[in-house]
Specification:
single chain; 121 residues; mainly alpha; 5 helices; globular
C-alpha cells in the first residue's frame, strides 16, 4: 500500500505544483481573465496564487512542511473558487457549465486537502 501513498502524493502534489508553475509562466495570458473577473491587481494576484499553488504542491510532493503547504492550498481554494468560478452569475449556458465544472472540481480538491490535513499529523 505504500506505493499507493507515493503515487497519490506525486499525482496530488504534482497537480498543484504544475498549476502553480503555469500561473507563474503564463502571467500575461492569465491576468486578463483575472481582470475580467474583477480581481484587483490581476497580474499580482496571478503571481500570488501561482506561488500558493507551487508551494502547496511542492510541500505535498516533498513531504516538507506539509501542513503549512496544505493550509496554503486551502487558502487558495477558499479564496479563488467562488471568485473565479462564480457560475451562478454567468448567463451563457456553455460558459456557465465550464465555470460550474471548475467550481465543483475545486470543491472536490478542497475536500481532499481538508482530509489530508486531518490525517497528516
Amino acid at each position: 500500500m505504500e506505493i499507493v501513498f507515493w503515487l497519490g502524493r506525486i499525482l496530488f502534489g504534482g497537480f498543484f505544483a504544475i498549476n502553480g508553475l503555469n500561473h507563474l509562466l503564463k502571467v500575461n495570458q492569465l491576468a486578463p481573465y483575472a481582470a475580467s473577473k474583477k480581481v484587483p491587481a490581476p497580474r499580482v494576484a496571478v503571481i500570488a496564487t501561482g506561488l500558493l499553488l507551487l508551494a502547496g504542491g511542492l510541500a505535498v510532493l516533498t513531504g516538507l512542511y506539509v501542513r503549512i503547504g496544505l493550509w496554503l492550498l486551502v487558502l487558495f481554494l477558499v479564496l479563488v473558487t467562488p471568485w473565479m468560478h462564480n457560475f451562478w452569475t454567468v448567463q451563457d449556458p456553455m460558459q456557465r457549465m465550464g465555470e460550474q465544472v471548475n467550481f465543483l472540481k475545486n470543491i472536490g480538491l478542497l475536500g481532499a486537502v481538508l482530509l489530508l490535513l486531518y490525517f497528516w499529523s
